[in-house]
Each structure stands twice: as structure tokens, then as C-alpha cells.
Write a structure and sequence with these properties.
By secondary structure, the chain is mainly alpha-helical. 61% of the residues lie in helices and 4% in strands.
Length: 162
């Protein structure tokens, strides 16, 4: 008897190289062989898709992914709500930092790299070093990122002011 998949998931038996790399990197053992590990959400909720549109809009200067690519990326996450929340926090920090300090496109790219690295590792010093951001901006952005709860009115205000 075949295992039934949870509603809203599919199994992809043939992965693109990008999908395989994504799954390989996400798995603790770094191996992508078990079909059960290749579950993907068939679609995102309306609110999740709207969040993807906001994320794509706010990062359009520094990340050329289309809205569809952002949506597809979150479909590949085991817990898209958690990932979307992280990216919304990154976006709120990016917006706030950009408003506090008028940044050139080069500094915006460094800020983006810093926030992605910092959100993954929590190591401010290492993220500053690897992203090439100046320490004043990195420390300010890192402190603001850490001050945000996972979701609150301040985050919403920053993101939904289009």
C-alpha cells in the first residue's frame, strides 16, 4: 500500500539541478535520494503569495528574482510560513536601514547580503566580514533585525507602505 501524501503536497521524481541543490542543502545529511524528502507544496495561500510579491518588490534592486521565482522557492520549503516570516523581517530591516541611511546601490547590495547571512547564522561579526558591509551599518541593521518580533505592527507598517 502506497503512503498517502498530505493534502497540498506532491512528490517530484525528477528534480531540476537547482531543486536538487536546494534539497541537498536543506537536508541534514546532504543527500537527496528519498522521495519522501522531496515533498513540495502545490500552491501557497493567498496571504503567502501576497507576501512573496512584497518581498520581490522590496528586493527588486538587489535581487532580480521574479515574483514567480520567489513563490516557487517558498513552495520548496517544508514550512513556507516560517521562511516567509524570516524574509519579511529581512525586508523590514532592509527598508528601515535604507531610510535611516541613504544608501547607494552598492551599499544596498551589501546590506542585502549581510541580512541574508545574518538571518541564517546569527553571527553579526561574520556576516559583516563576508558581506563587505561597513560595520556601522551592519551593527545597526543587525540590532534592528534582532529587535523585531517575528511579526508585529511595525513590520507590517514597513512592508505594507508601498
Amino acid at each position: 500500500m502506497k503512503n498517502k501524501l498530505p493534502k497540498g503536497y506532491e512528490v517530484k521524481e525528477t528534480l531540476t539541478p537547482e531543486e536538487k541543490e536546494h534539497v541537498d542543502n536543506a537536508l541534514p545529511d546532504g543527500k537527496c535520494g528519498d522521495l519522501e524528502r522531496m515533498l513540495f507544496h502545490l500552491k501557497l495561500e493567498v496571504q503567502q503569495e501576497y507576501a512573496c510579491r512584497l518581498i520581490a518588490k522590496h528586493f527588486s534592486e538587489v535581487d532580480k528574482k521574479s515574483v514567480e521565482e520567489w513563490i516557487d522557492g517558498f513552495k520548496h520549503d517544508m514550512h513556507p510560513d516560517r521562511e516567509i516570516t524570516v524574509w519579511l523581517r529581512i525586508a523590514a530591516t532592509y527598508i528601515k536601514s535604507g531610510r535611516v541611511m541613504k544608501l547607494s546601490i552598492g551599499k544596498k547590495k551589501s546590506l542585502y547580503r549581510f541580512l541574508v547571512l545574518f538571518s541564517m547564522t546569527g553571527d553579526k561579526k561574520d556576516a559583516i566580514k563576508k558581506s563587505g558591509i561597513n560595520s556601522k551599518l551592519g551593527n545597526m541593521a543587525g540590532d534592528f533585525y534582532l529587535s523585531l518580533p517575528s511579526w508585529n505592527d511595525e513590520v507590517k507598517d514597513e512592508l505594507f507602505t508601498l
